[in-house]
Amino acid sequence: MIDLTIYDPAMCCPTGICGANIDQKIVDFAADLDWLKSLGVGVKRINLSQEPALFAENPLVKTVLESSGVDGLPAIIAGDVLASSGVFPDRATLAEMAGLTAAQIAEGARAVTKSAGCCGDDTAREETPPSGGCCGGETETESEAHGCC
Predict the structure, then answer these.
(1) What is the pTM of this model?
(2) Are residues 141 and 87 in the same domain?
(3) Which residues contact 86 (CB under 8 A, 6 or more apart)?
(4) Does residue 94 sit in the same domain as residue 39?
């Protein structure tokens, strides 16, 4: 397996899943990264608004920024290779970047069917979501729409 480092655009929090106007592709991307982690892939996210110096220190990311500006983010480094820039890839693409085998992907798919949203197994779900919703700052209805408790 290959570790992935994601150089995210400036977001209000490390995952971008906060506030009332959450972009579904960012929610899906965060879930896909969690899925990769559950399969043993090393995943590190670096947010431009929180760690800008790290963007300048990486020559691959620096080149992306020089050629495309912030439109080139997120930049995804797989091992020491620029694997993607300017898009939030889907799960299959991320799995390919991480070098997962078909068997590992199948096992990950089986594990996903056993859970429900960010709270895990349906039997463990709370009747009332934590204050602000588990997706952060959302109403209960919006949290449920995102598969949260």
Answers:
(1) 0.70
(2) no
(3) 68, 71, 72, 73, 74
(4) yes
